């Protein structure tokens, strides 16, 4: 009897210790398998694979570019249409085969849903990049449109926009933007600032509201502190202090390079702060603010880092992360109330 009691106590101690360890490792956070059961509806898993880019379709679904599964010698990229709320793949379009191993990076879809631009990385002695455009049936519309754009999107007129990006701490120079009208000719033209709202709605360290009137910029961060923040200001008045938004997260990392995204109404901002010194560990958090109300809306810690978030609508964010334990890139829908 005494041995049975001792064994039961030992089992309970081990179980409690395991639960405490799992809790400390973030196993019950909203985007982890156990956490999704506890925090119902906060974080929804959508798909796992060699995910490149993700973009919304006019019908409300999402289009995802996927690399070929391991062992598939075709190296073809697939465009998969999936529900934005989770569920089985609706349809797939396999793009042409590639002679070398090719991985998708970014993706943009035209407002009418008929044109898709895909950024691809491939290796022929060294890593190279190219941008190609396709219709939804997989037919090639244009090849080698650019190298590796910092920003890529379609405007309201179904024209493809490119921009190389900006140096850390600097504003975007709209004069560097290029426009491709795929229906006419793949020859680039210079864009006007008024046309660039869709282009800079998400970005690294710097993003602009959809109407191009407001910017958000990551503040310099000191590793010794746990404070991170953004500066929000009016375009044309970058020298003024603007509005400061802050949050307290894990200390001991450099969070300078962070992905930002504005909501469609331009009032909410999501920022991912990732710790590159601790990949594969509890090292990342997503912070969300309503800058117009000066409110902090969400802190979402995650095991492994989120990347390339964008707003599906004013109350939901789509983001991906690489899972170092199970392998593959996971796509999530995150609710913001």
Structural commentary:
By secondary structure, the chain is mainly beta. The chain has a domain at 201-337: 7 Propeller (Methylamine Dehydrogenase, Chain H). It is built from two helices and 25 strands. The strands form six sheets. Strands 14-19-20-21-22 form a five-stranded antiparallel beta sheet, with no helix packed on it. Strands 1-25-24-23 form a four-stranded antiparallel beta sheet, with no helix packed on it. It has a four-stranded antiparallel beta sheet with strand order 2-3-4-5, with no helix packed on it. The longest helix is centred in the first third of the chain and has 23 residues, at 2-24.
Write the topology of this structure.
Elements: H1 2-24, H2 33-38, E1 43-49, E2 51-56, E3 62-66, E4 78-82, E5 91-94, E6 102-109, E7 115-123, E8 127-135, E9 140-142, E10 151-154, E11 160-163, E12 178-181, E13 185-190, E14 202-204, E15 206-208, E16 214-218, E17 227-234, E18 243-248, E19 259-262, E20 268-274, E21 282-290, E22 295-303, E23 306-313, E24 316-322, E25 329-335
Antiparallel strand pairs: 1-25, 2-3, 3-4, 4-5, 6-7, 7-8, 8-9, 10-11, 11-12, 12-13, 14-19, 15-16, 16-17, 17-18, 19-20, 20-21, 21-22, 23-24, 24-25
């Amino acid at each position: 009897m005494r041995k049975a009691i001792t064994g039961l106590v030992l089992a309970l101690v081990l179980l409690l210790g395991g639960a405490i360890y799992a809790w400390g490792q973030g196993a019950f956070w909203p985007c982890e398998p156990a956490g999704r059961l506890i925090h119902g509806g906060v974080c929804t898993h959508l798909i796992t694979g060699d995910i490149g880019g993700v973009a919304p379709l006019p019908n409300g679904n999402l289009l995802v570019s996927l690399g070929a599964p391991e062992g598939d010698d075709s190296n073809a990229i697939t465009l998969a249409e999936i529900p934005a709320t989770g569920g089985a793949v609706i349809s797939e379009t396999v793009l042409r085969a590639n002679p070398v191993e090719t991985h998708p990076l970014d993706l943009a879809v035209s407002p009418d849903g008929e044109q898709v631009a895909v950024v691809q990385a491939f290796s022929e002695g060294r890593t190279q990049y190219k941008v190609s455009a396709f219709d939804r049936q997989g037919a090639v519309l244009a090849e080698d449109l650019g190298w590796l754009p910092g920003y890529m999107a379609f405007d309201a007129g179904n024209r493809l926009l490119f921009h190389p990006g900006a140096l850390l701490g600097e504003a975007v120079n709209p004069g560097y933007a290029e426009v491709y009208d795929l229906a006419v000719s793949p020859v680039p033209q210079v864009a006007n600032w008024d046309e660039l709202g869709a282009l800079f709605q998400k970005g690294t360290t710097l993003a602009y509201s959809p109407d191009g009137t407001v910017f958000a910029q990551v503040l310099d961060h000191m590793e010794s502190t746990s404070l991170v923040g953004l500066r929000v200001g009016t375009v044309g008045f970058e020298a003024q202090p603007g509005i400061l938004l802050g949050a307290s997260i894990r200390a001991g990392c450099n969070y300078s390079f962070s992905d930002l995204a504005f909501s469609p109404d331009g009032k909410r901002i999501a920022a991912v702060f990732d710790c590159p010194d601790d990949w594969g560990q509890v090292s990342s958090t997503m912070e969300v603010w309503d800058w117009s109300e000066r409110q902090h809306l969400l802190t979402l810690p995650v095991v492994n880092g989120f990347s390339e978030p964008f707003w599906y609508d004013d109350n939901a964010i789509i983001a991906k992360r690489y899972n170092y334990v199970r392998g593959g890139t996971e796509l999530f829908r995150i609710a913001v109330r």
